[in-house]
Specification:
This protein is α/β, with parallel strands linked by helices and 265 residues long. It contains eight helices and nine strands.
Length: 265
């Protein structure tokens, strides 16, 4: 069922593994394949995965430090840990990191089981560095899942994709890609069960630099205008004597004389 209020009145329990959800392994495999082409674009060393579902998605990121943040730690999360992985138990609405320290963040259906999705997105924005990547997946509300209120034994929330995109744009995220994902070897349609949003955090300055006001150059410093100013004060009789017909007079002199005669009239 669609949710129009961002913050729910009751808390939700998040699954600790994809295997606890119907067709959970198929969802996990689809997200792994969809995220793989984007992984080489991640620059930096720190990668954050929020929630147990995000932690279970395999990501080939050599020479990266991956941090898994979960509210509840289960044995299935401690088994695949490597020396480059760190498992942290903390609230997703109050991440224990300083600002702009993370280079990429994964939220694999985290918002579908969250009581306060706004706060999770705000915290993700806070810890992400400028130009950091965000990979966010959701259950597609246009799929047959719209008629369900539970996945297995877990109540979950559904959001229209445009609403999540609107939240991200308000946080100065650029939406790089938004695509539906199919869990079976079939063509992706509008009613596929998963949606993957790839976004990048942008930094815009709050103060704009004013345009510099250029001082006007005095007239006497402009040779062309100074010449015209001197000509304007020359009597017409003097101009006639100077511009008298002469075999050495330039061809444009008659036009010059006619111009000043019209002004005098």
């Amino acid at each position: 069922m669609l949710n129009w209020h961002a913050k729910a009145k009751r808390s939700f329990s998040s699954p600790t593994s994809w295997q606890q959800l119907p067709q959970g392994e198929a969802y996990c495999n689809a997200l792994q394949k969809a995220c793989a082409p984007w992984l080489p674009k991640i620059l930096g060393y720190q990668v954050l995965k929020l929630g147990a579902l995000s932690a279970e998605i395999p990501t080939e990121l050599p020479m990266r430090h991956q941090m898994w943040v979960c509210e509840n730690i289960s044995p299935n999360l401690t088994t695949p840990l490597t020396p480059n992985d760190t498992l942290i138990q903390a609230e997703l609405t109050a991440l224990p990191f300083i600002q702009k320290e993370i280079n990429a963040a994964f939220l694999a259906n985290t918002l579908n089981f969250a009581q306060d999705p706004h706060q999770i997105l705000r915290e993700t924005h806070r810890v992400l560095s400028d130009d950091g990547w965000l990979f966010l997946s959701l259950f597609n509300p246009l799929s047959p899942l719209i008629f369900k209120q539970k996945l297995g034994t877990f109540p979950f929330r559904q959001y229209p994709t445009w609403r999540i995109i609107d939240w991200l744009e308000l946080l100065h995220f650029d939406i790089i890609s938004c695509q539906n994902l199919a869990i079976k070897p079939q063509q992706v349609t509008l009613f596929s069960p998963l949606t993957l949003i790839v976004a990048q955090k942008r930094h815009y300055p709050l103060t704009l630099n004013r345009e510099k006001v250029r001082s006007k150059t005095p007239t006497f410093l402009q040779p062309a205008e100074a010449f015209q100013e001197e000509i304007a004060h020359v009597p017409l009789i003097a101009l006639k004597s100077v511009l008298a017909p002469s075999p050495k007079l330039p061809y444009y002199a008659p036009h010059f004389f006619r111009l000043f005669r019209n002004n005098d009239d």
